[in-house]
């Protein structure tokens, strides 16, 4: 698939959902190239940023709001079989996407974003919410978090793995969205997670966004395209 935006550095992707005033700037400090998914361009303009590209079906993008965006940066993808998050994510080529504005507001949109993360596991992405950050857990990941840090695991498909440094280890547990889940676990110190297959969402407090981004970039082995 032809990429619309290429970057050797992480990319900030902004959606039209809920976000804090500081979310875009906080993300840009970690992922300096700015891209909007359709109506997310309005958030970018409100924060005095002009995105390098706006990707989507553009049905949510008021052309008045887009007045400050050069027309050559608007990339319309007309098919209606995928969300604007999916359209944007699959047309971005980068080591990591930090996505803001895809949670809160409409619950169906938020659930669709989780679905996209699991279907596009080869597109490494951290989703930033109001209080938490999440990503698809890679095959192996070590995070130097302090004891007591909340570490939640939510399976989007049947998956198993192993852990070190969790109050309740996950070894030998068969996780499934309609069965055992791993929310509200806690670190006893630095943690290491190993997953046997893609499909486990790792959820951490928002304060650990810089650490999660740093460690994902330092962990090059990810999941291949489905």
Task: Give the arrangement of secondary structure elements.
Elements: E1 5-6, E2 11-14, H1 23-28, E3 33-37, H2 40-46, E4 53-56, E5 74-76, H3 84-90, E6 92-93, E7 97-100, H4 107-119, E8 125-128, E9 132-136, E10 140-143, E11 150-155, E12 161-166, E13 182-195, E14 200-205, H5 209-217
Compose a concise summary of this entry.
The protein is α/β, with parallel strands linked by helices and 226 residues long. 19% of the residues lie in helices and 31% in strands.
Q: What does this 3D model show about the protein?
A:
This protein has 226 residues and is an alpha/beta fold. Helix content is 19%, strand content 31%. The chain has five helices and 14 strands. The strands form two sheets. Strands 2, 3, 4, 5, 7, 8, 9, 10, 11, 12, 13 and 14 form a twelve-stranded mixed β-sheet that branches. It has a two-stranded parallel ribbon with strand order 1-6. Helix 2 links the parallel strand 3 and strand 4 (53-56). The protein is globular and about 55 Å long.
Regions with little confidence, pLDDT below 50 for 5+ residues? none
The secondary-structure class comes to alpha/beta
CATH domain class name of the largest domain:
Alpha Beta
The outline comes out as globular
Distance between the termini: 14 Å
Largest sheet, in brief, is:
12 strands, mixed
Portion of residues in beta strands equals 25-35%
């Amino acid at each position: 698939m032809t990429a619309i935006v290429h970057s050797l550095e992480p990319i900030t992707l902004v959606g039209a959902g809920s976000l804090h005033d500081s979310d875009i700037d906080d993300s840009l400090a970690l992922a300096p190239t700015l891209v909007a998914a359709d109506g997310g361009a309005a958030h970018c303009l409100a924060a005095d940023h002009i995105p390098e590209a706006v990707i989507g079906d553009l049905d949510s993008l008021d052309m008045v709001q887009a007045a400050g965006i050069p027309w050559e940066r608007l990339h319309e993808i007309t098919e209606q079989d995928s969300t604007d998050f999916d359209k944007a994510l699959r047309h971005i080529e980068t080591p990591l996407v930090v996505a803001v504005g895809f949670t809160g507001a409409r619950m169906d949109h938020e659930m669709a974003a989780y679905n996209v993360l699991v279907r596009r596991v080869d597109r490494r992405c951290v989703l930033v919410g109001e209080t938490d950050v999440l990503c698809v857990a890679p095959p192996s990941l070590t995070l130097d978090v302090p004891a007591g840090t909340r570490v939640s695991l939510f399976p989007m498909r049947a998956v198993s793995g192993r852990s070190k440094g969790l109050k309740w280890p996950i070894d030998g547990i068969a996780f499934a969205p309609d069965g055992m889940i791993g929310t509200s676990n806690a670190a006893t110190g630095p943690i290491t997670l190993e997953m046997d297959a893609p499909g486990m969402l790792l959820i951490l407090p928002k304060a650990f966004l810089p650490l999660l981004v740093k460690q994902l970039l330092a962990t090059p082995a990810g999941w291949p395209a489905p």
